[in-house]
Amino acid sequence: MHNSHKDPTQEHDFIYSIEDGQSLTDNQCFLCGVALIETNRTDEHVFPQWLLRRFNLQNQKINLLNGTSLPYSKLKIPCCNSCNNEHLSRIEIEVGRAFQDGPGAVSALDRTTLFLWMGKVYYGILYRELFLPADRKDPSAGSIVSADILNTFRMHHTLMQAARGTVRWHQGQFPASIFVFRTQEPADPRDRFDYVDILHFPFLAMRIGSTAVVASLQDWGALANSVKVPGIEAAKKLSLHPQQFREVSALAAYMTTLFNRTPKHIVVSREDHVEIFTLPIAGLSGKFIFDEFSSEAYMHILAQILGMEVSEIYDGKSYRTLLQNTDGTPYTMPIGLDGQPEA
Ligand SMILES: [Zn+2]
């Protein structure tokens, strides 16, 4: 409806147009694309204020892709009044309440609500980086994230329109794999929050108080339903130590990179929305939907997410996971104990 390219003479001008929908300027709403003027312009906090307050994060910083950092409180994106105060605030209230109550409540959330909330955080960071210079001393270096990169997330942006009710997915289908884990809470509130994502893949993980959420945003349930990853299965039975959270995030992130299908969609225009029907993920190919797990490749992602060198965690043959004992059972790792499980 707020599509900036809409032609008012067109009969179905309320139908969201996938081709034109993604706004890439900071005088448009990041979500619906409407032109922002004084009367409808608001700032949407990518990381909501309830989260910043609850964990004392106002002055903490997030690292950006170019190696610089930005305070969480300045991570805001342009948003129109109705997207911000109607659609997104409804989601925010539900999600904020659930995280307050813990993993049971977060698991019980409507999964579309959780998907949209996580999807907004993920997309919001990239969107903010579209307007930040890659190098403050060199204006010709462009922005941290280019419009081309953001364009590769066009389908993600389309799915986000579900927040406004203009896009829905076919009954029984769901765009993402989302895992909810129980986590231990460190003494300092600032240490009760953690955020992980990876470049070029719609994946993110957040640890918020006693709950962690880990999501592969566009695999249409493949990671959750088509494969059993031992480390992820172990994590489901644990109350995760912060380091275990990082490890299971790395594992799910790596699995996301192994997903080898590009889902195909049929978009059907309904009266007041479009419906996305996703064709069966496996399709006609007999090949498994995840590429083969390579310890070596995984070690690079794990090291990156742990903030360590590969050589510190991997001797070329094996590494000691923090998620499982050597016999495969879940490894209980209380806070205060930062070492590896006994061999
Ligand atoms: Zn809007």
From TrEMBL:
At the top level of its lineage, which domain of life is listed? Answer: Bacteria
Please state what the protein is called. Answer: HNH endonuclease
Species of the source = Saccharopolyspora phatthalungensis
